[in-house]
Structures are given as C-alpha cells and as structure tokens.
Design brief:
The chain is mostly beta strands. The protein is built from nine helices and 44 strands. A hairpin with a 3-residue loop joins β23 and β24. The longest helix is centred in the N-terminal third of the chain and has 19 residues, at about 5-20. The radius of gyration is 31 Å and the shape is elongated. The chain starts with a helix and ends with a strand.
Length: about 850
C-alpha cells in the first residue's frame, strides 16, 4: 500500500482519538530564518500556564484538554511569535522565529551564557543557601500520606504495527490507544500498579519509613524481572541534591552547586503563582553527550524555594535503551512559607534506539502527597525496617476502598487497563508470547509447578569432560515460595561420566527469614576460580564450563560435596549463617595431581582429600533492594556495598577427615558514584589459613583462561599460577561513563564508555604446607605483590565491552601472559 495512504490513515485514526481524549493538540518544529532548528524554545497555549519546550532538534508536542486557538512561541534572542490554530488537532507545524530587532533594556543570553553578571545565577546561589531550610527539612519529624501510580505503555503504535500477524486474536487491545501529552506519540497501556502508603520521616537521624496500606496491579504481578524493573523506577530523588541517580547513572541536577559548569541559565520571566511572586529560570546543557537535563523552574522570591520544575534528559545524553526521561514536580505553599512537594511525575521512554520513529515502552510514575503532619515524634525502634513482612490484606482491597482513598480518579484509559489485561491473559497467543519473554528473562521454562533450566547452562566444554551437556530444574509455585527443591544432571562425552547436584531450602520462620538448606553435588570443578568461596552445592565455576578457553584448562578436580546449613536475617540486609560440610577432592585429570605426603619422612602419599568443616558466615549489604519474600529472592540491580566474613574450622578424624585447620576470609565491595565523573568499584579480599593444608585446600589466586572478562579474577594469570594460605587482594575499576570520549568530536556519537582499572595480590605459603606438597606443582606465592592494569571500552553497540590488560610484573615465569584481550556481553543503561 502507498505510504501516503498509510500515513493519511494513521492521522485519521489519531484525529479520532484526539477528539475523544483531548481538545487541543499541536506538534511541529521551531526554526530560525536560516531554517535551522531552535532548541529549548518555550511553547505555551496563550492564556494558560500549560507549556513545553522544544528539544535539541527544535521539535515539540503540546496538548490540553481545553480548547485554545493561539500558540505562543518564545526563545531568547528572538521575537515572540503567536500562531493561530485553525483546528483542534494540528500536526507538523513549522514555526519560524524572527530575530529580535530592538533589545532596549532587556538582557539576552544565547548559546553558553556568561557566568558573570547573570541574574539567574544570583538567584541560583540563594537557592543553594536555603535548600536545607525548605520543605520537610524545616522539621525534626514529619509524616504524610502518599499515593503512587506506575504505568507501562507500548508507544509509537501505527497502523502497520496493529495489522501485524502477531496480534491476530488480540486486536481488541488497540481500542485503548491514546496520545502522550509529553511526546505526542500514540501509546497502548499494558500495565498499571497503584499503591497507598503512610510515610514517616526523622530528619535528626535521616530515617524514613513507608507503611504500605494498599496495593493493586494488573498485568504481570508474578514476573520477577518486571517487578525488579518497576522497583528501579521507584528510586527516590531530591531535585535539591547535586546529583540525581536514574538507571544507575548520575545526572547533574540543575540546582546543583556544580550546575554552573554544565548548564546555561536564563532568567526568562516573573509572575504571581498561587499569590507568590516567582521567577522563571530556563536551563539547558552547555555541552552534548553529558548526563544533564533541559527545562525550567519557578522559584519564590523570598524563600527561594522551588514552586514548579519541568525537566527532560537531553537526547544526546550517553544512556542506553532510554530515549527520554521527563520529570515534573509541583510544590504547594503551607503556612505562608513552607513549600511542600505535592506532585511528582516521571516518564521514561525505553527503546532500542533514539530515533523518533522507533517503538518502545513508556514507564510512567506519578506520586501525590497530602495530609502532612509535623513534629509528631516516633521512637527510634519505629523506623526499624521489616525483614520479610508481607500483609496479604493490602493486596486485596475492595473497589470501594480504592474509590474512597485514591488521591485522584483514574482516567478512562487507566480504568480500561485492568479490564483489558484480565481479558488479554485469557488469550492463548498472548500467553505464548509472554512465556517466551519470561524464558529469556529467567532462563527457565515453566511446566505447571516445575521450572526446567537454567537453559543457558545446557552446554559447556573443558579438557576433562570434553563437550558437556546439562539438564535440570526446580519447583516453582510462585515468587514467594517458602520451600524449593532444585537439581540437575550432566554428562561429559570424553570422561563418559554422569554428574549431578540436588539441593533443598525451607523457610521455617518468615519474619526473621530462618532458612534451613542442604544438598549434595558430585561434579567436576575448577576450584581455583575464586578466593572467597561458599559451600553452595549447585554452584559451578565458569572456568570449567565455558565453551572456549585459552591455554590448558585441565587442572580440574572431582568434588563430592554435601552440606547442611541454617541462616537467619534478624535485621534487614544483615544475615548470619552456620553450616556443616563434608567433601572429598581428587584430581579429574592424569596431568594434574592433588597429592600430599602423609608422614614426616615424605615416603607415603595420598591423592584424595576428605574433609569435614563447620563454618560461620556474616553478610552485611546496606541499601540492597530485594524482590519477593520467598526462600529465594531477586536482587534489584542497583549499587550497594557488601561486607562478608567467613570463619571455617576443619576437623581431623571426623568422618575420616584428613586435616585440622582454621580459616578466616573477608570480602568487601564498595561502589562509589562520583557525580558526573562516573562510578568506581573497590573490592578488597583478605584470607588466612591457620594450620597445615594440601593443594586441594589451598587458596588459589584466581586466573582467567577464558576469552571473557570475569569479575574478581586476574586476567593475565593462568590457573594455579599462584597459590597461598594467606593473601590480600585489592581491585579497583572506574567507569567514566563516556565523559572523556564525549569531548572528542569524532567519537561523540559512538557513545562509548572508557574504563580503567588495576588489580594487585599479595600472598605467602607456610613452610609446613610447602613440606607436605607432593602434587608435582611447584608452589609459587605472590610474595612480591603481583599486579596488572587495564583499559577498556564499554557500550560498543550498546551490548559489548572489550578490556585490554597488561601484566605489571612476574614477566619471566613460564607460559606468561604479558598482555590479553577479553570481552563480555551485557545490557547496560
């Protein structure tokens, strides 16, 4: 069909919907006399306070439920322009702005505004002085009611999309199409979640507690990946902070004290708003590709508190999968001087690319606040976070309850989402599509209450097993299961042996998350793949299951591991675990031995190790966010610090155990977001074994003989190149997030991200442990501090990262890797 007719048909459909849902809609582009786009122009309906701003390409979209006949377009350096609207719906307007001929006493700023003699900056400095004296910060204690609505919508719906065969049998969903007031794109609601909460805050201790009173959603309420994604949208932000974090990226706030260096500011207007005289300040980025916003705000002339702010992430910002982020906040005046946040709206447009015509998904969150109370003190114990609390009653509130308690009524579209999705989930084809997405996201295929997988572990290869196939599964009744069984079996085509693993977990106390677990595994493993180890019976080293590796990876071990443990989480994100394990170790290859001497004369050797061990673990992970309340939970992918300590005691003689020892291990990881300079990760590991141990129980400094970058390994070390019974490692990596490349013109559009790092390890081996070594492996410990450094490029094609690593010392050891190139795939924002 001719594209012209398709486009005409699409406009006809859009016109029908705009007649139903809004009275006035306009889209177009603002240009100057040279036909060049005018970015950041202000577009309003004349006689209203409803306005938008053109983007970097001069394009805009504005809509209103009321009828307006005149559009007013203004921009610094140009004459004000009025456009007459002949009809309610107007698309593809071209607005020509003329240069201002008479400046008179008006000061005009264009391009990069001056940092001197700029009245906007004088106002900004007063905002900095008062920002901790405004709003909720004026009181020691506060409480308020909060209503939050999160919605996901498919956008850029056109006639060709609706006619796609994939939607056969589901055409009824397109009856719910509407048009975004922010972007002007058509969209189809696919998910909605509503929450009512009571919020309590203590400014003395910076503690905040939210009590959920009601929750309602439609769509995919049991999908862990979607719930995790939603929880990321819930990240809190304060516009007064210097930096605002969205999707693990740190954006410079327009109210930041460093904003002068990255934004241009223009004092554009002043007016009464709710009987308060306010200034209107426009802001936009000085440079492209940085994590910044464009927009404007109204600020009071006496308290210098923000009354209203609108801001959008610039299209050139170096962030993946997100085309737009748009934020609106409104503040109301209480007691003549206190400005309180009453409405917070955030919309994100997720898409594969940033082209205007690309299809994507809107994520919209609207939060409303009301009924504020101040200086009602609560005891410190009141703010203690519940570890594993779930009140099923809050998820089953009646329709009357919601009608009586919503802060604002749902519109026609939002009401229709609940009914549409209930119907949609009865359609067989939709179930098939949903199941496919769930499989790719979780790695499991669901059959009733049994999940087959993980499918991504089906194939592997190493020199002992050759090609390896694996099959397994787990019980699954829902995300909040209080018990779970998991198992697998595997077969190696070279060693002709079957392997297996079986484990079970049972949560006996939900409040404190008391979990009993146990299991058994017989498999082939690369036991030198990490320093800080666990006794997870279903864990497996990537080093022994990768498809491709460099050099020889035959230094593998047959392991038979059984364990029983109990864990408790009495305080949120603080976990204690005590466990007992029994394992046997023996070499899986004729070319590799774990032999040790059993007598002082060094005449008798053994090749296997039998060991009983008890261990106590403590883990602290402040600010970690979790999804679900079951025996297994998912972690939200947001930066949090992690502290882990493990004490182990090895018994001699218990179940024929061979060695007595004590082992202490510590792991600490700290992510640090350094504003616009990117993110640093610091990792420290310490360990010491007290007692005499053989190679099988030694701490092996983890090498990496794969072609992939593996966290907490040394890229230029081979397996077993260094061993130790006491060690200390420090790893540092910094991701600049593209800040350097964005300053290089020919690299700016690539959106690559520069990464640098360094790793170092120190270790020793006791004389007693050296004396019993009969493995044939010459022990080498990094007593002179082995180190390596790296430089990498991330975000290549948005999914690939490449790292170049140089060895700093120990350059003359056999089979030395002085330089390596490794890559990895992943989805990055």
């Amino acid at each position: 069909m001719n594209k012209k007719y398709i486009l005409s048909g699409l406009f006809f459909i859009l016109s029908v919907f705009t007649t139903l849902f809004a009275q006035t809609k306009v889209s177009g582009i603002v240009v100057d006399k040279s036909n060049q786009p005018v970015p950041f122009a202000n577009i309003v309906f004349k006689g209203s306070n409803m306005g938008v701003m053109s983007n970097e390409d001069g394009r805009f979209y504005i809509e209103s439920p009321s009828t307006y006949t005149t559009l007013l377009v203004t921009s610094v350096g140009f004459s004000d322009t009025e456009i007459t609207l002949d009809k309610a719906v107007n698309y593809n307007f071209k607005v020509l702005l003329k240069d201002m001929e008479e400046l008179k006493e008006v000061v005009i700023y264009s391009g990069k505004t001056s940092k001197k003699n700029n009245p906007a900056l004088d106002i900004l400095r007063k905002i900095w002085e008062r920002k901790r004296k405004n709003g909720l910060y004026q009181f020691d204690y506060y409480q308020m009611e909060k209503y939050e609505k999160v919605e996901f919508d498919m956008n850029t719906i056109d006639s060709a999309f609706m006619k796609n065969k994939i939607f056969k049998g589901m055409e009824f969903v397109f009856k719910h199409i509407d048009t975004s007031r922010v972007t002007g794109k058509t969209y189809l609601p696919i998910f909605i979640n509503e929450s009512l909460m009571e919020v309590y805050g203590n400014n003395k201790t910076n503690k905040v507690k939210e009590q959920l009173k009601a929750n309602k959603n439609s769509g995919f309420s049991d999908n862990q990946q979607i719930l995790s994604f939603i929880k990321d949208l819930y990240s809190n932000y304060d516009i007064y902070n210097n930096h605002l974090t969205f999707f693990d990226k740190s954006f410079t706030s327009p109210l930041s004290k460093t904003g002068i260096d990255v934004y241009s500011y223009v004092l554009r207007d002043s007016a009464f708003i709710d009987k308060k005289w306010c200034y209107n300040i426009l802001f936009y980025p000085r440079r492209k590709n940085e994590l910044t916003f464009k927009g404007d705000f109204w600020v009071n002339d006496t308290t210098f508190a923000i009354k209203k702010i609108n801001m959008a992430v610039t299209k050139s910002a170096n962030i993946n999968w997100v085309k737009d982020i748009y934020i609106e906040q409104e503040f109301e005046v209480e007691n003549d001087s206190v400005f309180l946040l009453t409405r917070d709206h955030m919309m994100s447009d997720f898409a594969l690319n940033k082209k205007d015509e690309s299809k994507g998904v809107y994520g919209k969150r609207t939060t409303l606040y009301q009924n504020h109370k101040f200086n009602v003190e609560k005891p410190a114990a009141f703010y203690k976070e519940e570890v594993n609390y779930i009140d099923n009653e809050v998820y089953n509130r009646s329709e009357k309850y919601w009608d009586d308690n919503r802060f604002e009524n749902l519109n026609k579209d939002e009401k229709g989402i609940y009914k549409m999705l209930d119907t949609l989930q009865t359609v067989k084809k939709f179930k098939q599509l949903y199941n496919l997405v769930s499989i790719l996201g979780s790695g499991y295929v669901q059959f009733g209450h049994f999940d087959y997988g993980p499918i991504f572990s089906t194939f592997g290869y190493n020199e002992v097993e050759g090609i390896r196939i694996r099959t397994g599964g787990r019980t699954y009744f829902g995300p909040n299961d209080t018990w779970r069984l998991q198992g697998y079996t595997a077969y190696g085509f070279d060693d002709h042996k079957f392997k297996y693993g079986l484990s079970g977990k049972w949560m006996v106390d939900k409040k404190n998350r008391i979990i009993i677990s146990g299991g058994n595994r017989r498999d082939v493993e690369q036991i030198g793949a990490s320093l800080t180890t666990t006794n997870d019976v279903l864990g497996r080293s990537f080093a022994s299951s990768s498809l491709v590796s460099t050099g020889n990876n035959g230094k593998l071990t047959n392991i038979n591991l059984s364990n029983l443990s109990v864990e408790i989480e009495p305080v949120k994100n603080l976990m204690f675990q005590m466990g007992f394990s029994y394992r046997t170790l023996e070499s899986a290859s004729d070319t590799f031995k774990l032999d040790y001497y059993t007598d002082a004369s060094q005449t008798t050797t053994r090749s296997d190790v039998k060991q009983s061990e008890v261990n106590l673990q403590v883990e602290l992970a402040p600010n970690r966010k979790m999804i679900g309340y079951g025996v297994e939970r998912s972690t939200v992918d947001s930066p949090f610090s992690r502290f882990y300590i493990n004490y182990s005691h090895g018994f001699k003689g218990l179940f024929d155990s061979d060695f007595k020892y004590d082992k202490l291990q510590l792991y600490y990881r700290q992510p640090i977001i350094i504003g616009p300079l990117g993110r640093t990760n610091l990792t420290l590991e310490l360990g010491k074994t007290f007692g005499t141990i053989p190679l099988g129980l030694m701490s092996v400094i983890p090498g990496n003989q794969s072609y992939s970058s593996i966290e907490n390994t040394f890229n230029n070390l081979n397996f077993y190149e260094f061993v130790a019974d006491q060690y200390a490692t420090l790893q540092w990596e910094h991701n600049f997030g593209g800040r350097v490349f964005s300053r290089i013109p020919f690299m700016r559009k690539l959106n690559w991200r520069e990464i640098i790092g360094a790793k170092a390890v120190y270790g020793t081996i006791s004389d007693a442990s050296r004396a019993i070594n009969a493995s044939g492996l010459v022990y080498a410990a990094p007593e002179d501090v082995y180190w390596e450094y790296s430089a990498g490029i991330g975000n290549i094609f948005k999914v690939f990262r490449i790292d170049f690593t140089w060895r700093g010392n120990y350059l003359n050891t056999p089979d030395t890797q002085k330089f390596s190139v490794k890559g990895s795939f992943g989805f990055y924002f």
